[in-house]
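Need a sequence for this fold. Nothing fancy.
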C-alpha cells in the first residue's frame, strides 16, 4: 500500500507545484499552452520512441494484452455511444470524452505502480501500445478533421475562398471527393508528432538488430521531461479561474468518472478471470485498468481547443478516486 501512496503522492506534489506556478503566474499568462505544446510536439514523441523501441512486441499476443485491449476498447465504445447518441455531443467533444473515459495514465502513474507495486515494469506495455497505436491515432484523426472543418468555417464566415461563390464550409466540404478527404486525413495523421514517434518506436522494436544505445540518449533526455511537464501543465490548468462556461458538463464528467474508476477495473477483472488469469497477472490487468485519466488527454484537448474542462476535471477526479480504488484492488487481489 505504501508504494501506491508514494507514487500518487509524488505526482500530487508536482501537480501542486504546477498549480502554484499558475496561480501566481510565475511563468506568464501563456505558459500552460506553451508547455502543452512542448509536451505534445517534442517531449512525448521522444519518450514514446525511446520506450517503444525497447518494448517486447510479443506482449501483444498474450492473454494479459487481450484483456487490456478488450476492456479498453469496450469502455471507449460505450463512452462514444453514450456521448453521441444519448448526450448528442459533437464529434470533437465525443472524442475528448472517450479519451477521458478510456485513456489511462499509464506513463506517469502506471509505470511507477508497475515497478513498485507489481515488480514488473513490462506489464504497462500492452496498455501503452493500445493507447498509442489505436486510441491516439483514431482520436487525432477525428480531432484533426474537426480542426480543419473549423478553419474552413472561419474562412467562410470571414469571406475567404470558401465564401467567394456564396457557399458555406459545409457546402464546400460536400463537393470534395472522398479520395481527397481520405488523403488529407492520412496526411494529417501521419504528420502528427506523437504518432510519428510511436510508429518510429514500433519499427525500431521490430528490427532484427539493435541500434547503439547512444542513439537513444537524446530521446531519453528529452522524453524524461514529458511526465513532469504534463503534470505541471495539469496543475497550471487547474489554477485557471473558471468562468461560467469553463466547467465540464456534469453528465459527461459523471460518465467519464464512472467508466474510468469503476467499470473498466471491474470489466478487466471479469475478462481476466474468464480467460484464466490469476495471481499477479490478474492483479496487473485490474490495476492497470484502475488508473486515472491521463494528463495527456488535457494536453490533447488544449492542443485542439476542445473539451479542456472535461479533460481537466476528469483527470483530477479520477486521480483522487484511484487511491481508494487501487487500495481495494491491491487488498482484494494482492
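Here you go.
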Amino acid at each position: 500500500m505504501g508504494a501506491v501512496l508514494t507514487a500518487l503522492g509524488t505526482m500530487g506534489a508536482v501537480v501542486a507545484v504546477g498549480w502554484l506556478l499558475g496561480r501566481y503566474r510565475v511563468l506568464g499568462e501563456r505558459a500552460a499552452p506553451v508547455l502543452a505544446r512542448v509536451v505534445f510536439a517534442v517531449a512525448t514523441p521522444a519518450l514514446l520512441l525511446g520506450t517503444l523501441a525497447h518494448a517486447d512486441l510479443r506482449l501483444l499476443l498474450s492473454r494479459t494484452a487481450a484483456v487490456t485491449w478488450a476492456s479498453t476498447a469496450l469502455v471507449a465504445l460505450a463512452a462514444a455511444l453514450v456521448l453521441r447518441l444519448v448526450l448528442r455531443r459533437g464529434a470533437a467533444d465525443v472524442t475528448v470524452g472517450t479519451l477521458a473515459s478510456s485513456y489511462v495514465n499509464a506513463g506517469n502513474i502506471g509505470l511507477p505502480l508497475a515497478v513498485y507495486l507489481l515488480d514488473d515494469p513490462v506489464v504497462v506495455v500492452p496498455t501503452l501500445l493500445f493507447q498509442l497505436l489505436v486510441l491516439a491515432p483514431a482520436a487525432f484523426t477525428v480531432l484533426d478533421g474537426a480542426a480543419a472543418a473549423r478553419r474552413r468555417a472561419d474562412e467562410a464566415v470571414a469571406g475567404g475562398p470558401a465564401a467567394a461563390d456564396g457557399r458555406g464550409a459545409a457546402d464546400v466540404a460536400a463537393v470534395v471527393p472522398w479520395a481527397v478527404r481520405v488523403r488529407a486525413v492520412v496526411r494529417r495523421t501521419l504528420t502528427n508528432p506523437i504518432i510519428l514517434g510511436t510508429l518510429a518506436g514500433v519499427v525500431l522494436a521490430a528490427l532484427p538488430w539493435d541500434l547503439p544505445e547512444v542513439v537513444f540518449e537524446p530521446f531519453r533526455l528529452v522524453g524524461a521531461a514529458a511526465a513532469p511537464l504534463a503534470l505541471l501543465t495539469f496543475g497550471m490548468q487547474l489554477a485557471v479561474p473558471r468562468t461560467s462556461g469553463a466547467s465540464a458538463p456534469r453528465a459527461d464528467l459523471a460518465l467519464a468518472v464512472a467508466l474510468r474508476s469503476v467499470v473498466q477495473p471491474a470489466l478487466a477483472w471479469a475478462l481476466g478471470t474468464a480467460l484464466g488469469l490469476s495471481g499477479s497477472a490478474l492483479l496487473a490487468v485490474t490495476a492497470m485498468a484502475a488508473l486515472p485519466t491521463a494528463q495527456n488527454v488535457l494536453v490533447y484537448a488544449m492542443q485542439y481547443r476542445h473539451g479542456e474542462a472535461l479533460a481537466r476535471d476528469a483527470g483530477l477526479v479520477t486521480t483522487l478516486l484511484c487511491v481508494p480504488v487501487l487500495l481495494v484492488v491491491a487488498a482484494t487481489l494482492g
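For context: The chain has one domain: 2-241+248-333.
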